[in-house]
Amino acid sequence: MALLEIDQLSAFYGKAQALHDVSLSVEQGSIIAIIGANGAGKSTLLDSIMGLTQMRGTITLDGTQIAKLKPKDIVRLGVGYAPERFNLFPYMSVRDNLLVGAFTARDDIERNLEMVHKLFPRLEERESQETASQSGGERQMVSLGRALMTSPKLLLVDEPTIGLAPKVCLEIADVLHRLRDEFSLTVLITEQNANFALSLAERIHVLETGRLVAEGSAEELAGDDRLAAAYFGH
Fold first, then answer.
1. CA-wise closest residue to 183 among 91, 115, 109
2. Domain locations along the chain
């Protein structure tokens, strides 16, 4: 059953069109990846799901049309977002950054903190540390943890491996798998790192200049020339 349905979504920044009639579905309990080169429209797609762009088309979450809702209402319906830009408060502690994410799920704070600390023991060890002094990998963990503090059923993660060491990328992949397998979350990620996405997700959608040009399983896309074309233009 599809948890998220996107139909004929176009997104705009002023008069500039960033997405062109994008349609896709995300099955409950799956990990889905949107891949493409820089500027393909991956972040715009996630921003559109969160109600942060001008758009036309329909976005349905668990049977509810969310395309015209405010971001805070979309969060309350069960969408957590860990943006590539992190958007952390650099001079606040790890714990306080996590608690910022709990504003729509105050009754679940202790349960969600326990989940975050189980997934990222380092964040519990360093809960009083300011995020400004953390490594990129640790800040990514805080960003993911803060999104989980909203009690999501759908987790959006924008470029989770950008700028991270291979060892940290493996940690992030393990956490995303555990979120699906242990906590029954549905995960939608965007990635420039095609190899990471192909190894992680059950289904891949390829964006090129705002248009979906290919989709399929990792096995189906591994030798698809459209994947190379989306990245390298040939």
1. 115
2. 2-85+153-232
